[in-house]
Design brief:
Blueprint lengths: L2 H5 L4 E10 L13 E8 L3 E5 L9 E6 L3 E11 L2 E6 L3
Antiparallel strand pairs: 1-2, 1-4, 2-3, 3-6, 4-5, 5-6
Length: 90
């Protein structure tokens, strides 16, 4: 789904700070790098996340938000400073 299409659907506009990791982004010590992020719009199945390092469509992403916990998902669309994350919910 595109970000433009998601913006037309029912969702909650929020501002929630968190962190995330992308696959294959390692620091000099060989550990996955953690970046800061901010969720700005959330539905039960998708989330727009503003982030400084944007992955590619199809990349898996793991995010953590203190108030609601861990989320895993797949990037379905990208923008200049963020992504639309298709949440993997069980």
């Amino acid at each position: 789904m595109s970000i433009e299409r998601f913006l037309k659907q029912r969702a909650v506009d929020i501002v929630m700070d968190g962190t995330y990791v992308l696959p294959n982004w390692y620091d000099p010590q060989g550990k996955l790098r953690t970046f800061a992020c901010r969720a700005t719009r959330v539905s039960p199945f998708r989330m727009i996340v503003d982030m400084p390092v944007v992955g590619k469509v199809g990349d898996s992403l793991t995010s953590y938000f203190r108030d609601i916990g861990n989320f895993e998902g797949t990037i379905s669309d990208t923008a200049r400073s963020g992504v639309l994350l298709e949440l993997d919910m069980t």
